[in-house]
Amino acid sequence: MITINTDSTFIQVKSDNLGIFAWQNGTVPEVVEMTVQHQPREKSIALAMTKREEKLHERKERLDNLLLNAVDETLKQVFKEAGAQVIYNFLGNKCHLKREEIAEKPEDFSADLKRLMVSAASVIEKMILENLYCMHASFQIT
Question: Domains in the chain, start-ordered, CATH in brackets?
């Protein structure tokens, strides 16, 4: 008879009483053959890495969205909706930085903001960071 263990191990046992595979009169049935059928190590590592990469990608997307929301909120607080749109148009047309790329290229965003606003850029950046901190605290990213 063959029994299947929970760890993907197949055990073939020899027993006088084929209906009983547990202790028999205080003795364990004789194990005739044991084979282990696991996924190849490379495949299980690849699956684990894929799952980890998916989690990291999801977390990065959440953080990117959080940063973009903080930038949007800050620009709208300071410049209202129309002013924020003017800034995004400037970044896109003159600096070739789309709104969606801000999280991927924060150094470019900072440099382009300084190009547009000179000394006021550092104040805007601090406000963005404050909003980001407040949003992060309210969402509790794990």
Answer: 2-38 (no CATH), 42-139 (1.10.1200)
Q: CB-based burial of residue 86 (10 Å sphere; 0-12 exposed, 13-18 middle, 19+ buried)?
A: middle
CA distance 28 to 15: 9
Tokens of 19: 């209906």
Structural contact between residues 66 and 136, judged by C-beta atoms closer than 8 angstroms: yes
CA separation for the pair 40, 33 (Å, rounded): 21
CB count in 10 Å sphere of residue 67: 21
Predicted TM-score of the model (pTM): 0.61
pLDDT in tens, 24-48: 444 455 554 554 455 566 666 667 7
* Position 88, amino acid: Y
Q: Of 36, 81, 67, which Cα lies nearest the Cα of 132? A: 67
